[in-house]
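Exercise 3.2. Students should predict the tertiary structure of the chain below and write it as structure tokens, then compare their answer with the key that follows.

Predict this chain's 3D structure.
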Amino acid sequence: MAFVRKLVALTLSLSLGGLAIAANAAGPLLRVAVLDDAPPMSYRAADGKLTGFSTAIARALCAEMGVECEFHAARLDFLVDELAADHFDFVAAGLLRTPERSQKVLFSKPVYRSVTLWFAQPGVKPGRAGVRVSTFKGSAQETYARAKHWDTIAAQDFGQMLEQLKAGVAQAAIVPLMTSIGLRENPQFAALGLESSVVQIPGLDVYARFAINPRRADLQLEVDRALDRIKRNGTFDHINSDFLPFRVE
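Answer key:
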């Protein structure tokens, strides 16, 4: 009987040891924050799964780095502060690098080039008196508009922005190019007859990047290297074709 007990104990010990080795072999678990209300960049599919261009790029980076990632939906206006507070390891959203954000978090290499668009009725230029401008809450465009002392109203997502424009609460909008894709594809937005133009914002980064936990300088390097690899091996272009109507760089 004593022999049997020793054999059972040895078997259990080996099994637990094997589980520990398997767990370590799986690599670290990274917490990745994404948006779930910004199609086609990041949103929930009909089955509830998080998907979109930025989310797919993040999954490809995790695979390239050989790590397991768990994805969490978060709000744009809280992304940077929650990342700085160590709630996530990196944020897979196209953020423009600003001096304020750079004081709180790290940034990856450019993921893609971005521009800022102004939407308004024909002839209505940025900064015109009496025009209320809808901006996404927490965006670099919101910060810019407020610094220019424009009359602004914040929108949590493009659905709320559309409602503001339809109701006349806002007469114009200033948004990132990628976010404008979802707006342009909406028939109700098209019916408003708004024209778009590129807004030149001095000093604003023209590249969208992923943000990284300031405690993880090592991860910044890993993400940059993985990003280089998926751009070389065609994965980036494949994801681009799956989600976007034009090529990004």
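Discussion points: The chain is about 40% helix and 25% strand. Residues 43 and 51 are 6 Å apart (CA to CA).
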